[in-house]
TrEMBL record:
Keywords: Protease inhibitor, Signal, Thiol protease inhibitor. InterPro entries: Cystatin_dom, Cystatin_sf. Residues 1-26 form the signal peptide. This is Cystatin domain-containing protein. Pfam families: SQAPI. Residues 23-110 form the Cystatin domain. It comes from Hibiscus sabdariffa (roselle).
Length: 112
């Protein structure tokens, strides 16, 4: 009986992993309240602002996934930011290297 229960537990654990991972990207279910994810989102807006006028004002991360490999963890974010008072949504990809250094890879307006 214990062997059957262990097998069922192992299979259900695999299903949970498969359901939360798509294309090697793991969903971050608490992206709107995760302080680390919020920091990465703010970083993305700050980096974008270094080369753009007018400046965006970071509001929040509305959706996030992540993918880890040898180069670090890539965050795929959907970020809300204010553009001259108008709230807009942007897609961003940020790499957080094992050293903690962050690098913005992409930042563009989200297509709805």
């Amino acid at each position: 009986m214990a062997k059957i229960e262990l097998t069922i537990f192992a299979l259900s654990s695999v299903l949970v992993v498969l359901c939360t991972t798509v294309n090697g990207q793991a969903a971050i279910t608490d992206a709107t309240s995760d302080k680390g994810v919020e920091e990465v989102g703010g970083f993305a807006v700050d980096e974008y602002n270094k080369s753009q006028q007018p400046k965006l004002a970071f509001s929040k991360v509305v959706q996030a996934t992540k993918q880890a490999d040898a180069s670090g963890t890539k965050y795929f974010l959907k970020v809300d930011a204010s553009d001259s008072g108008e709230m807009k949504t942007f897609n961003s990809e940020v790499l957080v290297k094992p050293s903690g250094e962050k690098e913005m890879l992409t930042f563009a307006g989200a297509k709805h």
